[in-house]
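Feature request, filed as a ticket because there's no other form

It would be nice if the structure record came with a short human-readable summary line next to the C-alpha cells. Right now we just get the raw output. Example of a typical job, pasted below so the devs can see what we mean:
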Amino acid sequence: MERKAREILVMLLVAVCFALVLADGSRWFLRLDLTRSRAWSISPVSKDILRGIQDQVHVTYFLSDTLRSLSPSPGRVIDLLQEYASESRGRVVVTVVDPEKTGQGESARRFGILPQQIQVIQQNEQRTADVYSGIAIDYLDRYTSLPAVFTPDGLEYSLSFAVRKVLAGRRLVVGVIVGEPGKSLRNDFDTLQTGLARDYSLHEYLPGDPIPPEVDVLVVMGGMQWGEQELRPLDTYIVSGGKVLFAVKGLHVQTANMFTAQPVGASPLLDMIESYGVQVGRDMVLDSAARDYRLPQQRPNGQIGWETIGRYPPWVSIQGPDVSSENPITSHFTGLDLLWPVALSPVPRGGVHAEPLVKTTGSAWEQRAPYVVDPYKVPQQGMTPGQFSLAFALTGIFPAFFPAAARQSVPTRMIVVGDDDFLTDVMQFSDSLSNVLFVENAVLWLSGNSDLLSIKTRAAAAGKLDRIQDPGVRPRLVLIAQVLNVVVIPLAVVLFGLLRWMRRKEKGAS
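Raw output as currently delivered:
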C-alpha cells in the first residue's frame, strides 16, 4: 500500500511539474529552426529593438472568428505574435480579440483597421464576408497599425519596424522631388507613392525648395534641365548629411504617345552627381535579359488584359547574380527592372566609397543616338556585348558642388540609379512592381535602418524540387522522388513486415 501511495505521489509531482512548465512556456521555450537563414526564429535585430522598450507595448490582433475558422493562417500569425511577446520578456503584451463579438469595432477603426471583404465557400455556396484581420501597436500615447494582416509572411519585419516607429515617436520622413516638367507624384508615380506612404511620411517638394533637415531620405527623379537655383538646396542638404537617391539618366524618353528618345546634352545636375563620384552616361543600355513589351487590352467583361509583343531589350531585367551580395539592399534580391537605362561609371573622389549595386548581364550592349525604341524595330542583340553598372551606392564625405567657406561636409550616403523611368507608372506596363520594393530597401539603407533589411529580405531556403529549374533535370528528379515515395518506400515496409512474419513463424515451428 505504501509503495502504491509513493507511485501516486510521484505521478502527482510529475503532473504538477509538467503543468508549471506549460504555464511558463510563454516565457521560457525551445524551438529548433533548421532553415539556413533562421527564417522562422525571432531575429537578433528584433530582440535588440525589444530590449529598448521602457514601458509595455500593447499589440492587439483584431481578428474575426469567421476568418480564424476558415484558414490556418491566422493561427500562424498568432503563434508569431506570441513568440514575439515571449522574446520581449514581458515588454510586449499580445491580445487577440474579435471586434464583432466584443463590440470593439469602433476601437479597431480608431487604429485604422477596417473590415476586409473576402470570398467564402461553404456547403458549395459562394458568398462574401466582412472580416477583421489587422494589428494595432499601442505605446504610451502613441500608436500605429498594420491594417491588413492575412499571413505571417514578412510580419516580423512589419512588427519590428512599427515598434521602432512608436518608440521613436515619429515616422521616417521621405521627401520626393519630381524633376520632369509636367509630371507630378500623384499623376505619374502613383504606384511608388502608394508603396512608400504605407510606412513613411511622404512629402513632395518642388525643384528649388529648401529641404528641411527633418527629411530622412530624399528621392530625386529627373531634373536634367535644372540650374543653380534648383541645385543649391540639394547640395546644401547633401553636404549637411542628407541622404539622397538619384534616379537620373542622360537621355529623355517620351512615353505620352509613341516612345521616342533624345539625348539631354549638357546637364548641371549630372555634373553635380559626377562631382560626388559617379558619371552618368548618355548612351542607352540594352540587354538580352529583358522584360516583355506589353500593351493593355480591354476585355469583353470590362477587365484589363495584357497583349505581349515579345522581349524588349531596352527594358533591362536585372538578374540575381548581377547584384551586390554584400550590400543589404540587394543581399536577398527580389528583382529590379530598369527602363531605357544608361551606364554609370565611378569617378575617384577622396573620402567617398562607390560600390556597384546592380549590373547588366554580360550580353548587354549600348546604343547611341539616334535611339531605336520602337518595340517592333529595336535590335535583339548588340555587336559588342559587355557588362555595365546601372546603380551605385556611395558612402563618405561628399565635396560641396557650390563651395561655401562657412560650410563643412559631414559623412552621409547616396544611391545613384541610371534611370528616371523605372519608378513611374510605366512599371505597370513592364510588370515591374518589384521596383517599389527596391526603393523601399534603398530608403531603409539610406536612413540607417539597414539592420531591418536583414529581417525583411531573409527567407527560408527552398527545400523543394522547384529550386531546380533545368527543364531536362527537373522532370527526372520529380519522377525519381515519386517512385521513391509511392513505390520503393511502401514496398520496403511491406517486405520488412513479411520477413519479420516469416522469421516469427519459423521460430514458432521450431
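Something like this underneath would help us a lot:
Residues 46 and 160 are 6 Å apart (CA to CA).
The longest strand covers residues 304-318.
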